[in-house]
Amino acid sequence: VLFEKLKANNRIPFHMPGHKRNTKLLGNKLPYDIDITEIEGFDNLHNPEGIIKEIENKAKSIYQSENSFILVNGSTVGILAGINSVVKQGDTVLVARNCHKSVYNALEIARAKAEYLEPPVDEYGICGKISLAELEKKIDLYEPKLIVVTSPTYEGVVSNLQQICEIAHFKNIPVLVDAAHGATDLCMIEDSKADIVVMSLHKTLPALTQCAVAHINGNLVDPQKFRIKLSVFETSSPSYVLMSSIDYCLDFLINNPKNSQLNINYHNCLSEFYNDCEKLNNLKVLSYDENSKIIIFTDYTNINGNTLAKLLRDNHNIEIEMATKNYVLAMTSICDDFSNYKKLSKALFKIDETLEKREYIPDKQLHLPYKKLESWQVDCCDFIDFNKSDGCVCGESIWAYPPGIPLIVAGEVVSKDVIAYVKDALDNGVNIQSTYNKLPKEIYCQLT
Ligand SMILES: Cc1ncc(COP(=O)(O)O)c(C=O)c1O
Q1: Which of 446, 418, 445 is nearest to 432 (CA)?
Q2: Which residues line ligand 1 (CB under 6 A)?
């Protein structure tokens, strides 16, 4: 609907943006013709009453939510606003340690105190579900003002949100679910009763990059406060191209329900792929609760994940989503050309033939670094030799990207294990990033 209205708009533009929709001058390779600012009749994302409100109402009905908000700055902005609409300086937040860096940034902005839930790591090095026993214990111990969990995770692990929320709500604590990878789950809100749910439409559905949606439910979080915080963190010039993409994506969800032929074909082709791959000799294909993420584990072979990614790219023209030392992660979606699953399995069999079997010795897991300070309390830092940083309080965060989950956060103490882990990951071609990006030479640390 928004797209058609944008297309029909032929008013002479004495307003932003500066391209003036002049496709005669600029050509039409980019969508200049529908890229406008908030002119009369096109509503305002930060106070929607018209066509944008209609899109948010559509999202409400699809996701069975009491309040939905469309986002043009990804899940990141929903997480920043969600945490900052609930938490005040000094409040404790109970956070699953495998959360995305946007959660840590939100905590830093809020000047909150972080306590961690530590999901168990399985034999493949992948973080599992939140333990309900740990949750109950840590709620009693820390009396948090908010709980933040990721479900599904980047790898597709889904936690028991219904029970997590029941436990939290019993103590009147709201739960924020980072469901950046869960936008295909239309029942999540009804089933779990989660208070804040943030979903990236662009990750798993047909939406342009940055398109996302947030939902606020129940009476523990004030939707008005959330809207106010959104207007702090989100651009004041929201893209109508992105908003029409969100609108289109929501229509796509309505037109392609679970029992649609397209959805059935998608899941059948995916099952066929997993069945085919059971016959691989050396590579091991895994999937977790949400099986749209294909994990191809390389540790039984003589190559690492990064080499597998390179072989797929160079020899088979296949670009995967992420490579770690131990596996690659391939993302699928309902919009795939399903014949590509056969191409991927064929490529994997070809590569598999050339590999040698290796005894699998699981890597030593990195223990949670000791937290000395909150990230926002770290002061008087400078760059020091990374090799000599053992025992120093870190002044920056380090993460592998993707998925952007911090290995160490500012305020935590660098250990020999952290140094060895980061060096080993870099040696294996993992894309390790840090706030200041001076690794492996230097790290930003507190000097005292
Ligand atoms: C678990 C998780 N949460 C949040 C985000 C941020 O989402 P976005 O890129 O839509 O801002 C990501 C991005 O990779 C993610 O993996």
Answers
A1: 418
A2: 74-76, 100, 102, 150, 154, 178, 180-181, 200, 212, 402-404
